[in-house]
Amino acid sequence: MTDALPLSVDAALVQLADSAWRLRKQAVETLEAYIEDGPADADTLRVLIERLLDRLTNPNTIDGRAAAHEVLVAIGPACADALAARLDQGGAAARMLVDLLGEVGGRSDVPTLVAMLEGPEREENLAAAACTALGALGGPQAEVALRHQLEGGTEMLRVYALDALRAARAVVPVAEVEPLVQSPLTRVGAATVLGLSADVAALPLLIGLLDNPMAGVRAAAAAATVRLQAALGERASIVSGAVARLSPATRAHIRALILHPDHEVRIAAIRLAGMASDSDAIEIVLSAMDDPRIHEEAFEMVHAVGPAAAAALGRAAESLDAVRREPLMRLVAALAPGSADQRLINTIVGALDEPDDEAALAAAETLQNMGNRSSLGGLYRAMAEPGRLGEAAADAMGAVMVREEVGHADLELIVGTAWPQSGALAQNLCRMVGRLEDPRYTSHLVAVLGSPDVGVRVAAATALGGLKGENEGASVLSFTLADEEPQVRAAACRSLGRLRAMSAWQSLVAATNDDSAMVRAAAVAALVCLDNPITLARLRAVIAEDPMPSVVVQAIAGLGRSALDQDLTMLMSLCTSADFEVVKAAARALGGFSVHRATAALLGLLGHTRWDVRWTAAEVLAERNDPTALAPLAALAASEEDPHVRRSIDLAIEALRSLGAG
Question: Which of 8, 79, 121, 622 is the most exposed place for a label (fewest CB within 10 A)?
């Protein structure tokens, strides 16, 4: 047999039992690479499997057994026949072989394992291993055999059978599981299986186990109750109704599980606390929020608890350490607007000064939804902070001013008549005012356009684009196109586009010749927003002359609105561009042309080498309402290999078929 294997493989088999961990790992990697490449023939693979099984069953090399097991798992189902043959021989290593069969076997191996459970001279440990393997393989025959053990097996086998039924996600009648709730040994497993039953009859049993003296049983019952609710589907409200009626003692037991080491139990306990509207659980939850999933569950719990959660968070805020302050801010965001009392609002405002940036940021984001007039002073001070905190404070202050209908005079009391001209505060003040969309702040923004701080000039130019109505902002922005900094010129172009300032179209056309590609792209995008036919000639020239695809892509979007034959011809020629972003922009623009030639060009792009180009073409075809594309799309769907593109083609076909049906 040794001669049938390559020398490197033979050496690796010997090295599997080496005392050095690194050498064993290297041997495993060598053998797995050989398996992945594919042995020369079936005989060679059979020889390798037999050699590995020799290593697995060798009682003198414990490390070698573990390494051989890892390689055999990598081989997979091809090991099953050799495993079954060795099981027939029995021996001390039979349990290891059964464990392996549970990992690599299939449904055809279930009868072999069932025989180990039902044989007249079964060995207890081997039968236990067979239970575990049957749970891994699953299937009706495996489940029937395991359920037989619940009634006729020994108590140890019942424990293993319950665990296996859980692993197989088997639905076992409650009547078969109920007797096992009485035994301390099988109680945990019984609770777990009851959670999969999808039977309301399991609910009283699980509710009762929530008060069990054993913490492990309570944990299993909590997780099972949540699983039962999910399994009940439309009847899930039965579970939440029962949990809402729990006694104070049972609620206390659930609260104790919120800090359980098992992640699933923690999530279940938080969810049950929400069903029970247990506001006393909120402070404990603040200590458990250590990952996004827990955060999500805690958020839902606060929402479920309702108005009582605001008072609980207020009490918790007075005694929390710095570590738990950020989670508190996040949970406050789950409250309904206006439900936080002033004491809690004050705590959140105070957190804006936290040395921990994340806690301060969380406070600013929370005040965006929960803040009131009293929080404006603290938010204004926080706007002086650079980075995300200052920006979040500006957004929050704008939101509060709109929600509380704070007037122009009130803002002047906070800011004063002379606005700051530089730094983070000036930038964020512009950001905040831009979100108010109030033209009364035009003069202030125009004044700071003369700031020596480039960032402030960018913020002011951007904010002017958000002001509504006729004002001097558009004319000032046109002059700003001469600013020495390209970031400012680009911001001015974007704002002129947002304002649809027709008076600035000549200035924007001039800006399409700017030295900066960023400014040229912003100017072209603004011209497209103006939607003025007089600018089409310039857009065509940009497409033909500008060397930067980022600029050309913006101009292409404008041609999609023209409906002119010459623009259709240009777009079709752009479909052959070497730059795929240009091709995608052309495909999107073709969606604006109703003629069949546009459909034909898009169908042609479905043969493009890049998946994202094909995906874009399919997306556009789905919106064109051209039934002539239906047959070609159906033909292309069969040959498309990329799943994203195939999905888009299928949606396009569905849309066109529904159009015909209508």
Answer: 121
Cα–Cα dist 545/442, whole Å: 37
621: nearest Cα among 583, 658, 591, 593: 591
Q: Report the 10 Å Cβ neighbour count for 489.
A: 27
Read off the pLDDT of each residue in 469-485 and give the average, rounded to a whole number.
86
Beta strands in 452-516 (DSSP E): none
Dist. CA 337–CA 283, nearest whole Å:
21
DSSP 139-166: SHHHHHHHHHHHHHS-HHHHHHHHHHHH
| Domain match, 487 and 602 both | no
469: left (phi over 0), alpha (psi -120 to 50) or beta: left
Is pTM beyond 0.85 here? Answer: no
What are the CA-CA distances from residue 374 to residues 273, 302, 405, 471, 543 (Å)?
33, 24, 13, 31, 53
How confident is the model over 55-83, as pLDDT tens digits? 888 877 777 888 889 999 999 888 888 88
- CA 213 to chain centroid: 38
- Structure token pair of residue 240: 């939440």
CA distance to 94, 103, 116, 132, per residue, from 129 (Å): 9, 12, 9, 5
End residue of a domain, out of 525, 559, 593: 559
Domain that includes residue 588, residue range: 562-662
CA angle 144, 145, 148 (to 5 degrees): 90
Q: Which of 305, 340, 369 is the last residue of a domain?
A: 305
Q: In the chain, what percentage of residues exceed pLDDT 70?
A: 97
Residue 167 CA to chain centroid, in angstroms?
26
Cβ neighbourhood burial of 312 (10 Å; 0-12, 13-18, 19+):
buried
What DSSP element (H or E) covers 21?
A: helix 21-37
Tell me the HSE value of 10 on the side-chain side, using a 13 A CA sphere: 8
